[in-house]
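[job 0417] fold request received: NADH:ubiquinone reductase (non-electrogenic)
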Amino acid sequence: MTILSFFTRASRAFNGYPASSKLLLLCTLSLSGGGVVAYSEAQVDASKTSVQVNEKDCKKKRVVVLGTGWAGISFLKDLDVSAYDVQVVSPRNYFAFTPLLPSVTCGTIEARSIVEPVRNIIKKRNGEIQFWEAECMKIDAANKKLFCRYTVENNLVGNDEFSLEYDYLVIAVGAQVNTFNTPGVLENCFFLKEVEDAQKIRRRVIDCFEKAVLPGLSEEERRINLHFVIVGGGPTGVEFAAELHDFVQEDLINLYPSVKDLVKITVIQSGDHILNMFDERISSFAEQKFRRDGIEVQTGSRVISVSDKEITMKLKAKGEICSVPHGLVVWSTGVETRPFVKDFMGQIGQANRRVLATDEWLRVKGCEDVYALGDCATINQRKVMEDIAAIFKAADKDNSGFLTVEEFKDVIDDILERYPQVEHYLKSKHLRDVTDLMKDSEGNYIDKVDIEGFKLALCQADSQVKNLPATAQVAAQQGAYLSKCFNRKYKWKDNPEGPRRFRGSGRHQFHPFQYKHLGQFAPLGGEQAAAELPGDWVSMGRSTQWLWYSVYASKQVSWRTRVLVVSDWTRRFIFGRDSSRI
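[job 0417] inference complete; emitting structure tokens
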């Protein structure tokens, strides 16, 4: 027996004994559904040789994660990293709490208070995750290989490009700003997608005020410099407008009193209302609040070009084209797919789609062992009418050609799980039970239906298929869901837990992803906010703002950022916002 084999066997013999470990209990606020999170940081047994580690790693499947946003970090946080060789590639070496970016633009919160270094998160997983600060330039789907590049500009030696092979690929890179090919947007507008964007806006706002108070400028020039335009009336645009208004009224007019009456904030929205994805009561409340605050809201206006001096738009109602001078334009109108993802879509037969399509298990369609989460992908929900004949055949156990109420009940749970639009349809029609679908053309209850009657009962269900919104909440839930699937991938291979396969035999290996909406907020400034809460509840006013504080504090990724964010809010209440140009 060689010395090497002796140490290898000895280390395996001792491998069954637990290493000393320490537990760090992290308690989050219960208000947002937080709970207790436990991390075990096991100390590495010094007797383990590098040979054993290498042998173990060779047996592991390699999982490469692209992105360190909401979806990527949620996936990594819950993944059993001992079962996989996990590698992460992202041009950002930190996770950013993006819902608070509008607060960073005005100094309400400091930029470093909402970011957590990725390597801090990795450290809590015993260092079993490797991180590469680089950008994925191309995915070679045929050979399961990624081509990456270190994109930080510097004069450091060494090659900036490298490649990685993968067994499983998780694409969680988010999306980029959609300019809709509007001339001048890339050159003359500011965006609000990254921490760096918020910092640029903060400096520009201060620049506008400093330039406006210089001697020798006319009043018209001062007005132009202090005209702030936000394109897009969604949650990000509205929250930034509210933050900017508070910054001006609570801090800047005291520092620049000579121009306090020259400041103007305009929100341009192509639709008929701002916050049109919210309940109409919230949309109306926000518009009234902005009107009282002096924030101009121009609805029904489409921007057709932006220059360094003016923004040109078309008024839909009149068909007129007008130009408005500006000092700052923030573009917040939606997102689109990143270039390397578009290239990947072309390789797998999705070139004609705008967004990468996955199935209900977040698996990319047309490419094996690749998953996509968050803003970069959309779930292509299968239509119930595509499988209606197979569903009827599976439910008709006696092959009578008719489906009884009892037979229908036997498969309804699988139908509701596999086709969630059926449940949405029942709610939209205020139907209390699935048996309410068992009616004839005149609306009378019947004991059994044939295939045509079954089609009639479910023919309108597919109209309730809706794409999930591109929000942090969706991405985080998808990341947590996929990590659970990976943790049980081999355990449930022979004992599937998912719904029945209507086309074929057996059951699906896992339950499909189901999004649970936990509500959404819209801060409106002046210590007021609006919220849509589960159960069709709507809340507006000052109490909702304090609910917003509680939820966003509890949702921070670490105790470090939680303490920093709360201390920033406290500092702002006591000392106001910092107007330094740093």
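[job 0417] notes: Residues 1-57 have pLDDT under 50 and may be disordered. Residues 383-465 form a domain with the Recoverin; domain 1 fold (CATH 1.10.238).
[job 0417] exit 0
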